[in-house]
Amino acid sequence: MEINISGLSKAFHLKDSQVQALNNVSLTTPANQILTLLGPSGCGKTTLLRCIAGLEVPDSGEIRIGDTTVFSSTNNAFVPPNKRGIGMVFQSYAIWPHMTVFDNVAYPLQVQKRPKKEIRERVRKTLSLVQLEGFEHRPATKLSGGQQQRVALARALIAEPKVVLFDEPLSNLDAKLREQTRRELRNFLSELGISAVYVTHDRIEALTISDVVAVMKDGQIIEMGKPKELYFGAKDKFVVDFIGGANFLEGEVVESAEGLVHVRSPMGTITCAEDTQLEAGTSVTVYIRPEAFEVLGDASERSCNVFRGTVERVLFAGESYESDIRVGDALLSVRLLPSVNVAEGEEIILHAAPSRCRILVDL
Ligand code: ADP
Ligand code: MG
To answer: Minimum mean pLDDT among 70-84, 124-138, 250-264, 344-358: which range?
Structure first.
């Protein structure tokens, strides 16, 4: 089920000020896939999710879920939350600890006063969907964190919603459990093929769990794409930085031809694989992620993007070395494999593939 959002705005009025939580947001979520809203705290993720759920009334704009207009400011449409066919999983009170797994999952149907037999049958079916069959009578507290999240998911799924909304569902788990649970959640959601909107401020969570990521800032969606497209090819500086960090180099286009743009920069001439035609002399910013570099034994191994530098600092970080390398007038953050042997003060030859040297554009 697709969700179409157009021109959505929402302000909160405080005593003597006003916060524009959503500023003219338009977005179409992909049907039967996981869309993540990623952005720093306060950028409007929860507000957008609550508008979709009907827990917040937008000031203007329109929201459609499938073929149904659930909100429209122009013709005063507002479908109440319980009529929107939505399931929700939140960060806090994900499940009720004093209840059994059965009672937790059955709750939405009990509220609807469904017949007992139907409830039993649907709880059984939903628990098997999240691979918790046989856990009905377990107290919720006697489950691992990952299993508890699956109970929360089962409770969100039991009324057979068209869309499931997640608001930072893993943020109460410790780091190791979070990693495991997000993998499980990803597997479940993609197997179920349901439409989900997932909110997080954690870039790794967004990259691993999503089919599509929409990056938000100040109540707006800045850029949207598949995780790999965004990681390797984001066009906006905030998005590049938020999703992984990079070296940003100001430069000037020397020449562009045949899918390559050559840019003069403080670290020398950088050849970027970009399909855009840019006139010589255009000011641009190039970005190269720290792990995009490799160390060459000999400069002649590559025909372009060969940079001679000096290692200023190296930190051993287990799976990599985090180093600062001086190349020309630039100081680069470079992530090196632990198998590469480098020491501070050493000369080093670096290479970055043109496909990993990207140009930012004004969006
Ligand atoms: P996020 O989920 O991305 O952290 P929110 O959607 O919760 O962001 O909040 C967006 C902005 O709206 C923030 O500045 C927040 O303080 C403000 N805000 C959210 N809810 C309310 C509210 N009920 N009353 C006043 N301000 C609010
Ligand atoms: Mg929030």
So the answer is: 124-138
**What's the CA gap between 170 and 57, in Å, rounded?**
26
Partner residues linked to 287 by β-bridges? 248, 358
What are the C-alpha distances in Å from 353 to residues 246, 278, 292, 316, 350? 15, 20, 7, 24, 10
Output 108 or 268, whichever has higher pLDDT: 268
Measure Cα distances from 150 to 90, 106, 263 in Å.
Answer: 12, 14, 50
Judged against a pLDDT cut of 90, whether residue 141 lies above it is answered with no
Distance separating alpha carbons of residues 240 and 263, to the nearest angstrom: 19
pLDDT in tens, 177-203: 888 888 888 888 888 888 999 999 999
Estimate the share of the chain in helix, then strand, then coil, as percent rounded to the nearest 5.
Answer: 30, 40, 35
The Cβ-side half-sphere exposure at 162, using a 13 Å CA radius, reads 18
Could you tell me the pTM of the whole model?
Answer: 0.91
Which 3 state secondary structure label does DSSP give 262? Answer: strand
Q: Is the CB of 148 under 6 A from ligand 1?
A: no
49 within ligand 1 shell (Cβ under 6 A): no
Beta-carbon-side half-sphere exposure of residue 325 (alpha carbons within 13 Å): 27
Asked whether 45 lines ligand 1 (CB < 6 A), one says yes
**Residue % of the chain over a pLDDT of 70:** 99
For residue 78, the CA-to-ligand 2 centroid distance in Å is: 23
Ligand 1 mean position to 60 CA, how many Å?
Answer: 17
Nearest to 36 by CA among 204, 238, 218, 148: 204
Contact (CB, 8 A) for 272 and 251:
no
Round to whole Å and give the CA distance between 341 and 292: 17
Element (H, E) at 239: helix 237-244
Assign 94 a pLDDT band (cuts: 50, 70, 90): low
Q: Please tell me if the CB atom of residue 233 comes closer than 6 angstroms to any atom of ligand 1.
A: no
Rounded Cα distance between 108 and 113, Å, is 9
